[in-house]
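Recap from last week: sequence in, structure out.
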Amino acid sequence: MSVCQQRDISALCPSVQFLWGPTGRDCFGHGFSTRSGGVSYIPTLSSLNLFSSSKRRDPGAVVAENRRRLALHGGFHPLPLRLVKVNHASAVWVLGKPEPESYDSMVTNQRGVVLAAPGADCMPILFADPIKKVIGAAHAGK
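Predicted structure tokens:
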């Protein structure tokens, strides 16, 4: 049975793979997901599509389910998850200030916020300042 014929998409795929960074969760939790364990109508995305754009046309419910799965396996709630809007430029969104139309990186000192940047054929970069308690995520590449 194909995904589009299922009513309950949450039971279709195996667990999300989440790889924790070397400092663990004690200071700034950080990690990387793989492309498995989600759902997608687009075979080339291998299932865990976390972004919706004109090039990635999974329905919003499918993307929301993948974000829910990522949060479940990453140990956080999906609502504070913020994803970089990839435009292959240099704009930065400082959370708490007005959100730009597009940006490739985000920084925040707000507790409980989860930042994410896609990798694929580009490089996700994570930043943390344990003194000022600031974190950042960036999408690097063209």
